[in-house]
Design goal:
With 198 residues, the protein is of the alpha+beta class. It is built from six helices and nine strands; from the N terminus they run ααββββαββαααβββ. It has helices spanning 3-6, 11-24, 68-75, 103-112, 115-123, 133-146, and strands at 32-38, 44-50, 54-55, 58-64, 78-85, 90-100, 158-172, 180-187, 190-195. Strands 1, 2, 3, 4, 5, 6, 7, 8 and 9 form a nine-stranded antiparallel sheet that branches. It is elongated.
């Protein structure tokens, strides 16, 4: 059976299977997702964020809304994301647009984080210029004291997004650089699949 037929017709199911394979293979960073955003005029930026499961069948991640990525997403919701699992010689590319998660979903995820990470979300003015590391340490100590013995609420400028994908591409490394590539593009009644040359 050819590689493209082995993948099946639903790219979300394929992604989940490949992600599970990466976890089972003890890939060092199975959740690492390079996320590219752009300004309204097309100036790009990219960084690694952590994939945090699905929201209604869409990939999700969390961040500070006031960060550079958050500001760019507010002005231009188009994104591209890449997973690269070196241990499996596999890569997944996703393109689409983002939607903010509901407050309830962001709250639920925030409550699941370790307390130190919750405090860090309050302490860091993400992407802003600071004088030195001491600003972060002082901010962390202050918020730790403020919420000593109490539940830490989610900051108003922190929460999640889900990627409404318009395309997926699955890449599998093969010999002689003749890699396998299969692309799924969203159409009205499902997904159109095509095999791409490497």
């Amino acid at each position: 059976m050819s590689f493209d037929l082995e993948l099946g017709s639903d790219p979300v199911q394929v992604f989940c299977a490949w992600y599970d394979d990466a976890v089972a293979a003890s890939d060092p960073f199975p959740d690492a997702m390079t996320l590219a955003t752009a300004t309204p005029t097309g100036e790009p930026s990219a960084r690694v964020v952590l994939y945090k499961g699905l929201s209604d069948g869409f990939l999700r991640f969390f961040t500070n809304y006031s960060s550079r990525k958050g500001r760019e997403l507010a002005q231009n919701p188009c994104v591209a994301a890449v997973f690269h699992w070196t241990s499996l010689a596999r890569q997944v590319r996703v393109e689409g647009r983002v939607e903010a998660l509901s407050g309830a979903e962001s709250d639920a995820y925030f409550r699941s984080r370790e307390r130190a990470s919750q405090l860090g979300a309050w302490a860091s003015p993400q992407s802003q210029v600071i004088a030195d590391r001491g600003v972060l340490d002082a901010g962390y100590a202050a918020v730790d004291e403020r919420y000593a013995g109490a539940e830490i609420p989610r900051p108003a400028d922190w929460g999640g997004y889900r990627i409404i994908a318009s395309s997926y591409e699955f890449w599998w490394g093969r010999a002689h650089r003749l890699h396998d590539r299969v692309q799924y593009r969203k159409i009205e009644d499902g997904w159109a699949r095509a095999v791409l040359a490497p």
